[in-house]
Write a structure and sequence with these properties.
Strand order of the largest sheet: 11-6-5-4-1-2-3-14
Helix content: 25-40%
Shape: globular
Largest sheet: 8 strands, mixed
Radius of gyration: 20 Å
Structural class: alpha/beta
């Protein structure tokens, strides 16, 4: 009997993780719909997907509802993910988390779809235990500048569990730890794109605090594999489940690794630690290993090398374009026509317009 190919919706599918997920799902033969408002996502991330007849791009906001269609799977990834991005419009961030979750859950209740919530390690706040297991309840400041993201994701998780209990819909909740890779924009604001960009441009590498705070970094290919395994694992409810690489590094160690791999002349400089910035971040992935038969395979230095090469190519292209445009410019434009130079902002709500590439 021929296996039916699911119709899959990825919210936030033009973002860093979302676009890589779309590519992998298309490679597996699925029909994929992507909805994104392009506040932080980019069409450049979808360059390969847009050439595939099984891909449909919808420009819109999941706050406004799920697009028309019959979807068997929904990956809910819509939300800015770095502090500069989600703090830019904190109310919109909270709305995306809560209204987006409500909309995909209501769709699932009515249509019987299976839904996966991309939650975050930030639900643990600034933890006082390490590594963090799924049973740890967290230490979050609901009045802080990061709360729009931290508490928004916690509220979205609650909605998923309650919809499962009340309506018996199939849910998965992934708590995603730090993930990195080539499609992270240089201005993302998180530590790896910051350090690589600064190192390649021979600018001072900014370390917040004393650099003793720790992070664990998962390469994008491993994260996409984990998300798909979680979605396709049998069961009515799976999660919360930590997804990340448990190998732990201090921020100072990370800076030295990147300096060595880029052969950079950058010097280290220190800035005050931001409010509520977690001192430790390390996932306990015992559940992912046991339930999904998944563990990361790409080690930090290998993943960084791939990411650095992608950034070198991006900066070289930007510099080439800048040289072409320089005679028409009144002043130096930095990265030239780098499409990642500025982030756009949009109103909290907007009407959905549809750009269809492939089948409807």
């Amino acid at each position: 009997m021929k296996r039916t190919i699911p119709n899959i919706l990825v919210t936030g599918g033009a973002g860093f993780i979302g676009s890589a997920l779309c590519d992998r799902l298309l490679e597996a033969g699925h029909r994929v719909w992507c909805i994104d408002n392009f506040v932080t996502g980019s069409r450049l991330n979808l360059k390969a997907a847009l050439r595939n007849e099984r891909f449909t791009l919808i420009e819109g906001d999941i706050q406004d509802g799920v697009p028309h269609g019959k979807f068997e799977r929904i990956y809910n990834l819509a939300c800015p993910a770095s502090p500069p991005q989600y703090q830019r419009d904190a109310v919109a961030t909270m709305r995306t988390n809560i209204l987006g979750a409500l909309n995909v859950l209501e769709y699932a209740r009515i249509n019987g779809a299976r839904v996966l919530q991309a939650s975050t390690s930030e639900v643990y706040g600034d933890p006082d235990v390490s590594p963090q297991s799924e049973e740890y309840l967290g230490l979050v400041n609901c009045a802080g500048r990061r709360a729009c993201y931290d508490e928004g994701k916690r509220a979205a998780e609650t909605l998923f569990y309650d919809y499962h209990r009340q309506h018996n819909i199939e849910i998965r909740v992934a708590r995603i730890f730090n993930t990195y890779g080539p499609r992270m924009i240089p201005e993302d604001g998180r530590v790896i794109p910051n350090f690589i960009s600064q190192a390649l441009l021979d600018q001072p590498i900014t370390i917040y605090g004393d650099g003793a705070q720790t992070r664990s970094f998962c390469y994008i290919d491993d994260m996409v594999s984990a998300l798909i395994k979680l979605m396709e694992k049998d069961g009515s409810r799976l999660g919360p489940i930590n997804l990340g690489n448990p190998a732990q590094f201090t921020i100072a160690e990370l800076a030295k690794i990147i300096l060595a791999q880029t052969v950079s002349k950058s010097e280290l400089t220190s800035l005050p630690l931001p409010e509520d910035d977690p001192k430790i971040r390390q996932p306990n992935i015992a559940k992912a290993i046991a339930q999904l038969d998944w563990a990361p395979t790409v080690q930090l230095r290998e993943g960084l090398e791939r990411t650095i090469e992608a950034y070198r190519a991006l900066f070289a292209k930007s510099a080439k374009n800048e040289r072409k445009l320089r005679p028409a410019l009144a002043s130096d434009s930095g990265f030239g026509d780098n499409p990642f130079r500025k982030q756009r902002t949009r109103p909290a709500t907007k009407s959905v317009t549809i750009e269809q590439i492939g089948p409807t």
